[in-house]
Amino acid sequence: MLRFFYDGTYHPSEFDDTSADQHLIMHRLADFYDASALRKAASHHLINFIDTCFMSWKNDSQSGSLDHVIRSIQQILGPSSDEFADNSIQEDVFKFIIIINAGHLYKNELSQELLVDGSLLNESLSRRFAQKTGEVIMCLS
Known about the structure:
This protein is mainly alpha-helical. It has helices spanning 2-7, 19-32, 36-59, 67-77, 88-107, 109-117, 123-140.
């Protein structure tokens, strides 16, 4: 975070299972200190990381589990997620999931369990998710 304030850069040092958590922590710090540029950069890196994980999993289902990504999504969108001063990360992650990657959620066992028990998305997002996926199904029929 200090590096960002000194030289305006935020580049994650590693790409591993904890990357989503690192971006989320950086976003929370930026949100707490009202550092909008850092908040935007952390959100951007988080969504890019999620996209990379989904694409890797899609192209090679043996490449590992999406569970760490699903847990990060739950921390952002779930019923017990933190309150954000700027909730744009929630909207960005939700749109990214609905528009591009909803199918991945249905194929992942953990996300299926969390969707069924109501702990992946908060109530309002669950309704929107059901509505949007219903619209897609109606278009296909």
